[in-house]
Amino acid sequence: MKCDGYEMFHGTVRVVPLNDNPPFDVTGVWLYRPDVDYWYVKRDEGGPGYAESMPPECLTDFRRDEE
């Protein structure tokens, strides 16, 4: 998948908050923009109706769904 020339994928990523909150998984469509060094995700469920942005230093364990 691509959007505005950026690669995207559907999958699950482990979010490790930069504060003391526990890690959690987020499943949805992920897009990385190297020009701003941020990941964006449109969650499948349980999130706001818009794409959220997250810094790469709090993301780990990228699991892409089979295509």
CATH architecture: Roll
Biggest sheet: strands, sense, closure?
A: 6 strands, antiparallel
- Distance from first to last alpha carbon: 10 Å
Radius of gyration (CA) equals: 12 Å
**Total beta-strand segments:** 6
Mean pLDDT: 92
Instruction: Write the CATH fold name.
Output: SH3 type barrels
Basic shape: globular
- Number of folding domains? 1
Q: Number of helix segments? A: 0
Question: What's the oligomerization state?
Answer: single chain
Query: Helical amount among residues, as a percent range?
Result: under 10%
The H/E string reads EEEEEE
Which stretches of 5+ consecutive residues score pLDDT under 50?
A: none
Global structural class: mainly beta
Please report the first level of CATH classification, the CATH class: Mainly Beta
Strand content: over 45%
What labels would you give this structure?
67 residues, mainly beta, SH3 type barrels, 6-stranded antiparallel β-sheet, 6 strands
Describe the structure.
It is a single chain. The chain is an all-beta fold. It has one domain: SH3 type barrels (Roll). The protein contains no helices and 6 strands. Strands 1, 2, 3, 4, 5 and 6 form a 6-stranded antiparallel β-sheet that branches. The protein is globular and about 35 Å long. The N and C termini lie close together (10 Å). 6% of the residues are buried.
